[in-house]
Automatic annotation (TrEMBL):
Domain Fe2OG dioxygenase positions: 121-230
One example GO MF annotation: dioxygenase activity
Originating species: freshwater metagenome
A Pfam family annotated for this UniProt entry: 2OG-FeII_Oxy_2
Protein's UniProt name: Unannotated protein
Residue span of region Disordered: 230-261
Amino acid sequence: MHAGVAVLPESTRVGETSRWLTGWLTGAVDVDRSSLLIDRRAAVETTALDEHSWVHLVRGFVPDAAAALDRVRSTTPWQQQEVLRYEAYVPERRLSSGLRADSDPLLRQIDLHLTATHRQRFTGVAAILYRDGEDFQGLHSDREMRWLDDTLIAIVVLGQRRPFVIRRRAPMREVVERVPAGTAPDDLVFTPGEGDLLVMGGACQRDWLHGIPRADTANPRISLTWRWTSRRGRPDTNPGYVDGRQFSDRPRRPGTRTRRP
């Protein structure tokens, strides 16, 4: 034990890891509870999107979310990403960064919890800062994962509660995505924030879209995202978000580029 983080014993073998994590999750492993930054036993609310996809919402998963927001916001090396769209690089309306799960006690505990709960090793952590209500993310699916038949995306949301919109993907993709998020009659709207954990599972990335529309708020919101894919089924070969869009005969350019804000 160090820095308030439960740590896998060095002698733990691969075959024993799952049992150790289960013990940590259930409390069977001796952990200093005063060092815990998450509520491992918070209730899980399940929403079935269809027979293949689901959403879990865990309210209050990070009890001291205000302190976590301040710490993550001030210590993260935020970057402004620009995406190639129609021959020009367009700044995203948000800041982002990639973090190591072992770089912070809170991130490490979340990582352990997700591994123990879902019995899978996640990749992460992708951090996004919405500085105020003018920052947003359009409807999309995380198709960069490629294998979308069975995936998990876990998002811990710190700060302002804002609509998290989920919409069924339809054959007429262009029409579906042009309807503003949260305004279609069949949109599902969750409002995670203040330390909640939201998990999208199953075929959610294959059959559904999600996004964060603009909101009337001056307060920040940070999402911390972990991902996992089974790598089973037929891979999605369509261009991903970071592939950019270029239609001229000019030499191919990177789909994204970053700069300090």
